[in-house]
């Protein structure tokens, strides 16, 4: 079982906000369990995925991390860079990244020493190298080039608990 109270604090401490224009940008992180709830749409009941706050999770649970950015200043925030560790007890879900703003993303498989696209990275194993897989990811890196004055944005990605 993983508890998220301390993980949220640790993740928040790992953000590096480079804002040459000195804009005040608030960053918050939430951890959510994805659940399906019935809804009536056009007279038919359908199941929709909703996010419910998660304080803990067991093996096999899918969780979504939501990073919220809020530029509370009257000037753009630029060069916002976030580096997040991926706990060894979870697996990042490939292609789960979505964002409401323009960003670039990269992963690391060596504890944050180097970053790139997963398909371009390799791992040394038994005196040989092999292509890296999602199980090898140790860190995520997101870079937002600019967040306009007063703009809010979200970045979501999902993991499963091993």
In the CATH hierarchy, what is the architecture at level 2?
Answer: Sandwich
Shape: flat
The main β sheet shows up as: 6 strands, antiparallel
Structural class: mainly beta
E-strand count: 14
Terminal residue distance? 10 Å
Radius of gyration (Å): 18 Å
> How many H/I helical runs?
1
Low-confidence stretches: 1-21
CATH topology: Immunoglobulin-like
Q: Which percent bin holds the helix content? A: under 10%
- Domain tally: 1
Mean pLDDT comes to 85
Strand-residue proportion: over 45%
What is the top-level CATH class? Mainly Beta
SSE run: EHEEEEEEEEEEEEE
Structure description:
This protein is mostly beta strands. The chain has a single domain (2-161), classed as Immunoglobulin-like. 6% of the residues lie in helices and 56% in strands. It has one helix and 14 strands. The chain has one helix at residues 5-13, and strands at 2-3, 15-17, 25-41, 44-53, 56-57, 62-71, 77-85, 90-92, 98-99, 104-108, 122-125, 128-131, 139-147, 152-161. The strands form four sheets. Strands 3, 4, 6, 8, 9 and 14 form a six-stranded antiparallel beta sheet that branches. A hairpin with a 2-residue loop joins strand 11 and strand 12 (128-131). The chain starts with a strand and ends with a strand. Mean pLDDT is 85; it is low at 1-21.
């Amino acid at each position: 079982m993983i508890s998220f109270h301390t993980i949220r604090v640790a993740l928040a401490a790992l953000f590096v906000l480079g804002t040459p224009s000195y804009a005040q940008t608030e960053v918050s992180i939430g951890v959510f369990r994805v659940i399906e709830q019935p809804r009536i749409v056009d007279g038919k009941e359908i199941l929709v995925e909703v996010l419910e706050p998660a304080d803990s999770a067991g093996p096999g649970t899918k969780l979504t991390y939501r990073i919220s950015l809020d530029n509370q200043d009257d000037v753009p925030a630029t060069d916002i860079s976030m580096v997040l560790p991926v706990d060894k007890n979870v697996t990042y879900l490939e292609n789960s990244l979505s964002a409401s703003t323009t960003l670039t993303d990269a992963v690391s498989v060596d504890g944050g020493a180097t970053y790139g696209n997963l398909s371009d990275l390799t791992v040394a194993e038994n005196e040989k190298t092999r292509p890296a897989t999602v199980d090898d990811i140790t860190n995520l890196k997101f870079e937002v080039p600019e967040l306009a004055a007063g703009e809010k944005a979200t970045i979501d990605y999902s993991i499963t608990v091993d």
